[in-house]
Structures are given as C-alpha cells and as structure tokens.
Amino acid sequence: MCGRYVSLSDPNQLAERFEVDEIRTEPLGERYNVAPSTPVYAVLDDTRTRRLGTLRWGFVPRWAKQLKGTPQPINARIETVATSRMFAPSFARRRCLLPADGFYEWQARDEGAKKQPFHLADPSGEPLAFAGIWSSWRDPQTPDADPLFSTAIVTTDARGEMERIHHRMPVILPPTLWRDWLTADPDEAPHLLETVSALGAPKLRATAITDRVNSVRNDGPELLEPGTVPGTVPG
Predict the structure, then answer these.
(1) Does residue 14 fall inside a structural domain?
(2) Which of 2, 16, 96, 222 is catalytic?
(3) Which of 40, 150, 169, 171 qualifies as a cystine partner to 60, CB 3.0-4.6 A?
(4) How many domains does the chain have?
C-alpha cells in the first residue's frame, strides 16, 4: 500500500521532469509527510496537452450520492483496478501520474514491537512517478458547485527492496511508460495493464527512520533522518 509520501519538487521542476506543456497549480510547498485527503500534484494528458495540476488524495467515484459515508480509498489494487465498480471507469479513461520524491512504509517486527518506518526513494534523487487514477465528482444536491477531482495510487505486490519491508507497494512507472499510461484508450487499456503488471522491481533506496513520521502533524526534513524505533532492529 502507500499511505504517506514526500513531495519536495516545485511545479517548475516537475514540469521539466514530466515534460509538461501547461502548469495549472500554485506551488504546494515542500511537504515531508503528504497524507490522505490533501491536495497532491498530478500529471494528466489528453493527447493534446500534458498538464500539471492538483487532485485530492482519496478517490470519490462519479456515482457517489454524497461524500459522507462514501468510501474514499487512497489506493487501488492493480489486480482489480480494471474490473471493480469503484475504479474500472477511471482506469479505462482517467489515468494520471502522481509525482513523489519518496514514500514511507512500515515494516512489521516481532510481536509486541512497534513497526519500523522506512523512507524509500530513487537512488539518483529523481522524483518517482506513481501510477494513479482520477475521478471527477459533483454533488447531486448542489449541481452548480465546482467538481471535486480526486485520485488513488495504484498498488502492486512488493518487488525488490520492498519485499523485506511490506507486501505491497505503489506501482512506479518508468519514463518509457508515462505516455502510454496517460493516453492509452479503453481498447488499449487491457494490454497496458498486462505491461504494467509485468514490470520488474524499481530501483529504490530504503532508509530506516524514526517514528516521528507516524504523526501527520510532523512535517519537516528531520523525518528523513536515519534512525530506528526503540526495541527494533531493521532486517
């Protein structure tokens, strides 16, 4: 899964990295503890213009009658993203890239011991590209209100460095698949899913960190400092 991540690159840096034609967002600032329900940078492409904007992290399906009581998942499993009622329409037509300068995952330890958090990032320092899907929702009770644009990160079985930490991880797309993920039409989507599902392990650097990251109220560079949770030793 992916429940927290790091966003340090500014819109201009992301526009260069992802070859964006148009920036449609104000800077969100450096964030070391991006949490669900907050706005996040997203790259979208309609085959004519590639845009950098923001989406709310926490997926709201188009058919939802109201926000209250409607599940708003932050992750979508790649095994079911093309078939579930919640995600299938978006996978077919509304895919995006979610830039991240790293992400966090928690490793289960011996019974009774606290989980050990890890920071995972590209060894070269380049932003990662999470595979995402997005949705546009309008409140049926206030049809004149602005739509809510939301997103979920697509996840897969852990591979490579992640296998010793957690059993799931975000789908991290290489640059060679960015355009296909953004622009493939519904007829091409099944083949795209096969290609993405068969990806090998991405190159990641895993660093054990302290449990300061556990609280979303903590948000600063100290979260990335190496450290271990008392009573545990990273494997």
Answers:
(1) yes
(2) 2
(3) 150
(4) 1
**Catalytic one of 105, 126, 188, 222:** 105
**CB under 8 Å, gap of 24 or more: what pairs does 187-190 form?**
189/82, 189/91, 189/92, 190/82
Active site residue 96: no
pTM of the model: 0.95
What would the pLDDT profile of 69-105 be if each residue is shown by its tens digit?
899 999 999 999 999 999 999 999 999 999 999 999 9
Within-domain flag for 231: no
Q: What is the spatial distance between Cα 229 and Cα 9, in angstroms, rounded to a whole number?
A: 28
Question: d(Cα 90, Cα 40) in Å, to the nearest integer?
Answer: 18
Give the per-residue pLDDT at 112.
73
Is-catalytic flag, 2? yes
Structure tokens given for 163: 């296998």
Q: Which two tokens stand for residue 99?
A: 């830039």
For residue 233, tell me if it sits in a domain: no
> What phi and psi, each to the nearest 5 degrees, are found at residue 16?
-70, -45
Which residues constitute the domain of residue 97?
A: 5-224
CATH number at residue 209: 3.90.1680.10
